[in-house]
Amino acid sequence: MAHFKAVRGSFQQLLLFAFLLITALLVGVALRAVFQYDALMTQNRDAASRALALSGAAQSLAERSAAMERAGRQSLVLNDAVLRRRFEDAARDARAIVERLEDNGVPAASIEPWRAQLAALQTLLLGPTETALARESTMAMQFRELDTANTAIAQQAQAQIEAQNKALEQRIESARVRLMRQVLAASALAVALALAFGVWLARPFKRLQRAIVGLGENRLDEPIDIRGPADVRRVSQQLEWLRLRLTELDADKARFLRHVSHELKTPLAALREGISLLEDGVTGALNPAQREVAQILQQNAISLQGQIEALLRFNAAAFEARELHRERTPLLPLIEEQVEAQRLQWHAYGLRIEVGGEPLSVVIDRTKLGAAIANLLSNAIRFSERGGIIRIGVSGTPETTFIDIADAGPGIAEGDRERIFEPFYRGSRQPEHAVKGTGIGLSIVQEYIAAHGGRVVLLPDGPGARFRIELPRSG
Fold first, then answer.
1. Which domain range does residue 124 map to?
2. Does residue 315 sit in the same domain as residue 338?
3. Could you tell me if 278 and 405 lie in one domain?
4. Where is 400: in which H helix or E strand?
């Protein structure tokens, strides 16, 4: 069996670490989402500012052009130096606006015609007074061309705004897709980590459960060494100490039973021999009353010897149940063997035995399961009414195999049902025609079936007593 690698820290600490790791992962994704949101909001504000700047610059450029036209044409007609300075101031402001538009991405191809047109207008301001009216007419046409250039620049600014908005939308969509992927990946990773930690931390507890079940089923020959967190290792060490202690107690019990049984058999044999001598009249003839007392003593001595031998058999069965020699065995032939072995007994009572069910095979100790079936069959024969039918059936599910044995007797009394598997317990409904039992048959059946990882249960009467053996299909 694969062992867990030793892990520092307790189960509580490891569980806390797992929660912190998963929480850190999710918090990291959330913080990244917040940072991306802040970055996108900053970009959005910058784009809005640039859009307002471009739109405002285009509008300001149109206003400055109108101011230049008024000042320039009036300065030519009136030959006024103040108006000419106004024209130059407006032209200087317009050039600054155009430079700002160029810095914000308006193509130079749209800017250069405007600059050439402005240079032509400035040239028209120069010249003699005699040609002023002619130049004013030409300037009016030039300003129409300048308006066309302004319109082209405004269109380019609007196109630049739309391009910036589209680029911002693409960045937002890309960030949304990227964030969605990160959230999905983090969620999947968090689920995977939770499952991995859950399985990893649950494994030693499953082994603890198996170890406890093994102790409960008296499988004391399997050492308990469970690796895992520190507290799990401490529990494993305590269970191993308990296993060793139970092994010692079991060995002490077996030695005690063997010793007591042996010590009782020797004086009991002498007692029976003495009673036999009395009955044979070796010490003198017995009167009828004395002979009756001797017979009572002999019967009780025989009963006591039977009890001692039953105690030895039960102790031996409990010891042998721990060592199984498993092999795949068909159940129906095994049951037929036990039925045939007791043919004389059930024939003597005029009974019939019906065996049927599914032809199932399980991995078992053939000898011990056969002994368990034989004990149940023997009980069924003892308690069945003459001429009755004993039914034995085999069935199963994908996980469990069932062997049902139903007799033709009076059934188990309600007050006896809870104690029927206790060693040396005999129920209140004893058959009149049969020899009194020892009360260990069902206890031995329980020992053998539990050793296989199964159980034997008493089903509700229907009529007679119905016992069911449940065995795992996995063997």
1. 11-194
2. no
3. no
4. strand 400-406
Q: Which of 376, 338, 384, 370 is nearest to 467 (CA)?
A: 376
Does residue 200 fall inside a structural domain? no
Q: How far apart (Å, rounded) are the C-alpha atoms in residues 262 and 269?
A: 11
**Pair 449, 468 in one domain:** yes
Please report, in tens digits, the pLDDT of each residue of the chain (475 residues total).
Answer: 334 444 455 666 767 777 787 788 778 877 877 777 777 777 777 777 777 777 777 788 788 878 877 877 787 778 778 888 888 888 888 888 888 877 777 787 878 888 887 788 778 777 777 777 777 788 788 878 878 877 887 787 787 777 777 887 888 888 788 878 877 887 888 788 777 777 777 777 788 788 888 777 666 777 888 777 777 778 888 888 888 888 787 777 667 766 666 666 667 777 777 777 777 777 777 788 877 777 777 777 776 776 676 666 666 666 655 667 888 999 999 999 999 988 888 888 889 999 999 999 999 888 888 988 988 898 888 888 888 899 999 998 888 999 999 988 887 777 677 777 776 666 556 655 545 555 677 788 888 888 888 888 888 866 788 899 999 986 5
Who contacts 19 (Cβ-Cβ below 8 Å, separation ≥6)? none
Residues 117/149, Cβ–Cβ less than 8 Å: yes
In a domain, 439, yes or no: yes
Query: Of 117, 115, 110, nearest to 145 (Cα)?
Result: 117
d(CA 284, CA 302): 23
Q: What H or E segment, with its residue span, contains residue 306?
A: helix 288-320
Whether residue 296 is found in the same domain as residue 341: no
Question: Residue 329 sits in a domain of what CATH number?
Answer: 3.30.565.10
Contact by Cβ (8 Å): 172, 40: yes
Same domain, 244 and 139: no
115 and 249 in a single domain? The answer is no
Phi, psi (rounded to 5 degrees) for 338: -70, -35
> Looking at the structure, do residues 60 and 173 belong to the same domain, yes or no?
yes
Q: What does 186-199 look like in DSSP terms, one character per residue?
A: HHHHHHHHHHHHHH
> In the chain, count of helices (H) and strands (E)?
10, 7
Which two tokens mark 397?
A: 């599910």
Query: Is residue 209 included in any domain, yes or no?
Result: no
Residue 202 lies in a domain: no
Kindly state whether residues 40 and 174 are assigned to the same domain: yes
